[in-house]
């Protein structure tokens, strides 16, 4: 077992209680990301708006964890990345193109919003997946708390009534090579927090 794991089950519960805003943003972001992948893989444009909202919420959670400031009005993932960068540089500039494209998709939810008119393509999904996974891994959260978020439960503890694990893994090249090591870490933390 990894000796760096020091939080108890109660510590994790307390951590998320003290960071409720981030916890709820991460949960909603995970739901949006899962639905976004399902839609995009089935050629439904709504998936791109959901992807934008997923990244937006994850960035808002990170801003909160860095500053304890709730972000309620901004919906632009690129702008949120810049705000996060002013607090701490997570080396996310390489995603500027997809962050701007996601906001364009978000704006397209109304016919009279200004957009670039560039359209959407399923070829964007690998970039969205890479960005999502990098944000998840860079969440400024202790591992014991991080591996208790819905994203990891959806991946490694599938619900018999929902297909979240399928939609998170399907055609996801960003996650494919990382799944084995994440599964080991998930199990290690499960055993640490919930010993038999």
Notes on the structure:
This protein is mainly alpha-helical. 65% of the residues lie in helices and 0% in strands. α3 packs parallel to α6 (125-138). The longest helix is centred in the N-terminal third of the chain and has 22 residues, at 20-41.
Question: Briefly, what is this?
Answer:
This protein has 196 residues and is mainly alpha-helical. Helices cover 65% and strands 0% of the residues.
Biggest pleated-sheet summary: none
What share of the residues does DSSP label as strand, in percent?
Answer: under 5%
In DSSP terms (H or I, runs of 4 or more residues), the helix count works out at 11
Instruction: Characterize the quaternary organization of these chains.
Output: single chain
Class computed from helices, strands and strand pairing = mainly alpha
Topology pattern, helix = H, strand = E: HHHHHHHHHHH
From the alpha carbons, calculate the radius of gyration and give it in angstroms: 17 Å
Mass-distribution shape? globular
